[in-house]
Design a protein that fits this description.
The chain has about 350 residues and is α/β, with parallel strands linked by helices. It has helices spanning about 5-15, 40-50, 75-90, 100-110, 120-130, 155-165, 175-190, 195, 200-210, 230-235, 245-255, 295-310, 325-330, 340-350, and strands at about 60-65, 95, 130-135, 145-150, 225-230, 260, 280-285, 315-320, 330-335. The structure holds pyridoxal-5'-phosphate.
């Protein structure tokens, strides 16, 4: 994988599999000018195939717009390289296209050879390089449900039996006709550059505003949202006390804005109960298109700046109820001290009852 996604990894592990993450080294540099930090590292891919043997690799998975490391895209050229390697070893490519809209936009504006291609042509080129494409329509297409697409007959015949078992009959997969119609409109809109550019442009605005104020953020601006680097923002909080989770809670106290933790909390303990520390501790402020106004972004920037000035008041978190699977969805946490009340008191002192 260029990077894992929480639920995807959970499914693989539950089925007795394991994953290897092989993004380019630059992917893990929080601040960078690399236009495609979501690229897969080709020599590492070859190394993984040599290590395990192609017969033990079910598929190579690419995620368009790596969710957990700042919504960073991969390039069309990178996918072409991955295809070549996979072809020479008979390995299938699976694309998670949930965040494809942003990735398409970045390919169009950042990849020289694609500048003259339409979004539809880029989509076609990407699709032709993959064996299976799946997506959550909550992101791609802005509808409920999702889709699995393939032009590979062997995969189709295998999936054909599973879809009615787990979703609904093959023709509708558990979705209503109304939803499928909405999805069709949403996918068509995704082919419109003016439409898909709105999210990334808003994200870039917010990232640049925060950068001007010295707030640590992921660069270059990616898709999905603006990502704060909690490891640096809260460098006094050990990773075992979930700095990204703490920052999420603190921002809610200071602004009412709900962000999403993308760090160690979003990881899962291994079979020995050992908690892996995430490569990054991020607070994601998702900016889906057509949802927020510029003044809402400015408000949030303003509150983040206040929080940054008062960051030493923020403390850590600990679990009081930690589910075994996908703990970040259902788990309950508490503060390691009374820092939330102290933070709220300082907020009142500085800004009154302005939330
Ligand atoms: C890359 C990626 N894949 C899969 C999903 C899962 O989406 P859903 O929960 O709608 O099925 C998400 C959700 O954010 C995602 O970003």
């Amino acid at each position: 994988m260029n990077y894992h996604f929480t639920t995807t990894k959970a499914h693989i592990v539950l089925n007795g599999g394991s994953i290897e993450e092989i993004p380019i080294d630059e992917a893990l540099n929080i601040t960078s000018a690399h236009p495609f930090k979501g690229n897969m590292d080709i020599p590492k891919l070859k190394g993984v195939i040599d290590k395990h043997g192609s017969e033990r690799i079910a598929f190579v998975r690419l995620e368009a717009g790596t969710n957990l490391i700042g919504g960073q895209p991969f390039s069309l050229s990178n996918l072409e390289e991955v295809r070549k390697v996979c072809d020479s070893h008979g390995i299938k490519i699976v694309l998670d296209a949930s965040l494809l809209a942003d990735n398409l936009y970045f390919i169009k504006v950042r990849e020289e050879k694609c500048k003259e291609m339409s979004i539809r042509e880029i989509t076609r080129a990407l699709s032709d390089l993959c064996d299976i494409i799946y997506f959550s329509a909550r992101k791609l297409g802005c509808a409920r449900g999702g889709g699995i697409l393939t032009n590979d007959e062997e995969s189709y015949l295998k999936l054909r039996e599973l879809v009615p078992l787990y979703e609904g009959f093959l023709t509708y997969g558990g979705m209503s006709v109304r939803e499928m119609e909405a999805l069709t409109v949403g996918l068509e809109e995704t082919m419109d550059e003016d439409m898909i550019s709105q999210g990334p442009i808003f994200i870039a605005y917010m990232v640049e505003e925060l950068q001007k104020k010295g707030i640590p953020v992921v660069t270059p601006p990616g898709g999905l949202g603006c990502h704060l680097n909690a490891m640096e923002f809260l460098d006094h909080i050990p990773q075992k006390q979930y700095p990204a989770g703490a920052l999420t809670a603190a921002l809610y106290i200071a602004s009412g804005v709900r962000g999403m933790e993308r760090g160690t909390l979003s990881e899962q303990r291994d079979e020995h109960g050992v908690e892996p520390l995430a490569n990054m501790e991020l607070l994601r402020l998702a900016l889906p298109r057509r949802v927020f106004t510029l003044s809402q972004l400015n408000y949030t920037v303003d509150r983040i700046v206040w929080l940054y000035d008062n960051r030493k008041l923020i403390g850590g978190l600990e679990f009081v109820d930690e589910p075994q699977n996908l703990r970040f969805f259902f788990g309950k946490l508490k503060a390691t001290s009374d820092w939330p009340s102290k933070l709220a008191a300082k907020f009142k002192e500085d800004l009154g009852d302005s939330v």
